Amino acid sequence: MFVDHVRIYVKAGDGGNGAVAFHREKYVSHGGPDGGDGGHGGNIVFRVDEGSNTLLAFRYKHKFVAQNGSNGKGDKFHGATAPDLVISVPPGTLLRDSTSGRIIHDMTENDGADYICCRGGRGGWGNRHFATPTRQMPMFAKNGTKGEERELILELKMLADVGLVGMPSVGKSSILARISSARPKIAAYHFTTLSPNLGVVSVGGERGFVAADIPGLIEGAADGAGLGHAFLRHVDRCRLLLHVVDVARTEGRDPIEDILAINSELEKYSASLAARPQIIVANKADALDGELTDIPAFEAFVKENGWELFYVSAATGKGLSELVARVSERLRDLPPLTVFESEIAEEEAVGGVVETTVRRENNTFYVEGDWLYNLMGRTNFDNYESLSYFQRSLIKNGVIALLEEKGCMEGHTVNIYDFEFEFIK
User: Fold this and answer.
1) How far apart are CA 283 and CA 112, in angstroms?
2) Quick check: 329 pLDDT over 70?
3) How many CB atoms lie within 10 A of CB 261?
4) How far apart (Å, rounded) are the C-alpha atoms in residues 266 and 277?
5) Residue 9 DSSP symbol
6) Average model confidence (pLDDT) for the chain?
7) Percent above pLDDT 90 for the chain
8) How far apart (Å, rounded) are the C-alpha atoms in residues 100 and 284?
9) If you average pLDDT over residues 322-338, what whole number do you get?
10) pTM of this structure
């Protein structure tokens, strides 16, 4: 089964908590603080699997959570850092934000190098970090921070230099089978091809190119008709389009009308895709009947639009070697495969913009934010010094000013993740 569009949830591991501990050994009655730090949480890392060409592995598994870092211990023992969770995807996979649909990363960028999508939380500091000449027995430590999380859409856009497009049953799969080692299913009925097929075409020596047979393009494909809407994305990266038509009209269709219909669908889907260079491949030339097809009108139409024209026969192989040679020449002068740039700022791409939100219910003000959640986790509210640090953080990060802006006054209640206090100016 071919799967090229899935939605998944990913979460990096949380950092381990720092330890509150004090050195104890024989003859040492008042040892200093020696609480160890927590380990870092594991990252969510995407990696290209060159041997894969489908997202089928994600059909039944949609949730990926990395391990948390271990907590610190006494005697300055550092908690273990969790391993990264590596998710393998096929070459050409786009990572999109599930809410906005914007591109986060193209896994073909930088030659498919590993991409850290969500970073693991940092381990919290043990209490030994908080010892000072005036605070020799700190009774608090920092908790680890939360790992980043997000929902993603994985979208596969195949890595092909050349895309074969055209109406059903014009011979796209037969041509691909003839010019490459691909062995697509071929039969004499519509929609034989139910998924894109890739084939490597050799042009001598180590030179060659990758061609893709894109199925299901019919009139209305860009609006969801037929199978075309699901597979048009696989033409996005193609540098050159081979527009295949049945010049012999064995299905009774006019090749000129077919070209106009398919190009109209390409234009509706993407203006840049419609602007890609095309070569018209007039297939089934071995069965050509001059009475059925007005060859002068067809050739005039192709010339008027500035396209090259090749008459071929997938059945006999006639004209295919000349077509392959010309495609190879054209590709040498065309730009490399399309790489899609990120549409999300860096701070969003690694887990979202840090925000503080305040909502009011009667005279109670609820304050939320990831950084606040992490701050709450590393605050000991039974310790005066830790509580003072918490209050300074609220002022420094604009929480007090934001509360006043929302109408909070003395005597009102402030709730931060179930910790409530009376607002005092």
Assistant:
1) 36
2) yes
3) 17
4) 12
5) E
6) 83
7) 35
8) 45
9) 90
10) 0.71
* Alpha carbons 330 and 319: distance in angstroms, whole number: 17
Q: Which helix (H) or strand (E) holds 199?
A: strand 197-202
Q: Which residues of 160-196 are buried (b: 16+ CB within 10 A; e: fewer)?
A: bbbbbbbbbbbbbbbbbbbbbebebeeeeeeebbebb
Q: Are 104 and 152 in contact (CB under 8 A)?
A: yes
The two structure tokens encoding residue 329: 């020449």
**Residue matched to tokens 């000129």:** 256
State the Cα–Cα distance between residues 181 and 194, nearest whole angstrom.
Answer: 19
**pLDDT score recorded for residue 1:** 45
What does the alpha-carbon distance between residue 46 and residue 10 come to, in Å, rounded to a whole number?
Answer: 11
* Model pLDDT for residues 117-167, shown as the tens digit of each residue: 999 988 988 888 878 777 778 887 888 888 999 999 999 887 889 989 988
Give 116's strand partners: 45
- Beta-bridged to residue 219, according to DSSP, are none
CA angle 417, 20, 386 (to 5 degrees): 50
Contact 107, 152 (CB under 8 A): no
H-assigned helices in 359-398: 370-377, 384-396
Tell me which residue of 4, 6, 120, 14 sits closest to 61, measured CA to CA.
6
Planar angle of CA 390, 146, 396, nearest 5 degrees: 30
Q: Is it the case that residue 103 has pLDDT exceeding 70?
A: yes
Indicate whether 205 pLDDT > 70.
no
Q: Rounded CA gap, 279 and 306, in Å? A: 9
CA 189 and chain centroid, separation: 36
Q: How confident is the model at residue 277 (pLDDT cuts 50, 70, 90)?
A: very high
Structure token digits, residue 351: 């887990």
DSSP code of 130? G
Side-chain half-sphere exposure of 363, counting CA atoms within 13 A: 8
Backbone angles phi, psi at 416, to 5 degrees: -120, 100
d(CA 342, CA 95): 9
Q: Which residues make beta-bridge pairs with 178?
A: none
CB 373 within 8 A of CB 417: yes
Which one, of 216, 241, 231, lies nearest residue 161 by Cα? 241
Least confident of 23-32, 92-101, 190-199: 190-199
